[in-house]
């Protein structure tokens, strides 16, 4: 009876891992970050002078909140670009969502809307810098 229970628990864990995805190892995280940085470079030439984006500061203890804010702002950008650029943004979103991991609420981290609003070139530069800092 005990063996059946143990094997049942192991099977449940395996199924949950398959359903929710196992956490990324270091190499997979680096690949996601590098792909996101490369794709972000393809967006550098977007000419968008009328939209402002909440741009978080790069603070190490708030990586999750910062990443979530950048993802939220990418959704705003996606609404305003042509289809080719939308596909690039979708790729970036998929890669960064894989990095999100479990949500940890840090009360010292600012909400996205509390960050400074910047035009796209500055937003792009800050996001690129943030992703590069995550590679280290």
TrEMBL record:
Listed SUPFAM superfamilies: 4-helical cytokines (SSF47266)
One biological process term in Gene Ontology: immune response
Cellular localization per UniProt: Secreted
GO MF entry, a single one: cytokine receptor binding
Annotated InterPro entries: 4_helix_cytokine-like_core, IL-15/IL-21_fam
PANTHER family membership: INTERLEUKIN-15, INTERLEUKIN-15-RELATED
Homology family: Belongs to the IL-15/IL-21 family.
Name of this protein: Interleukin
Gene name in the database record: Il15
């Amino acid at each position: 009876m005990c063996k059946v229970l143990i094997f049942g628990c192991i099977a449940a864990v395996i199924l949950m891992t398959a359903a929710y995805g196992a956490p990324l190892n270091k190499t997979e995280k680096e690949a996601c970050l590098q792909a996101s940085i490369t794709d972000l470079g393809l967006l550098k030439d977007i000419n968008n002078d009328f939209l402002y984006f909440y741009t978080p500061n790069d603070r190490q203890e708030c990586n999750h909140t910062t990443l979530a804010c950048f993802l939220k702002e990418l959704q705003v950008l996606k609404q305003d670009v042509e289809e080719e650029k939308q596909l690039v943004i979708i790729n970036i979103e998929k890669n960064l969502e894989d990095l999100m991991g479990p949500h940890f609420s840090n009360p010292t981290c600012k909400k996205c809307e509390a960050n400074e609003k910047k035009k796209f070139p500055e937003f792009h530069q800050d996001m690129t810098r943030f992703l590069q800092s995550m590679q280290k």
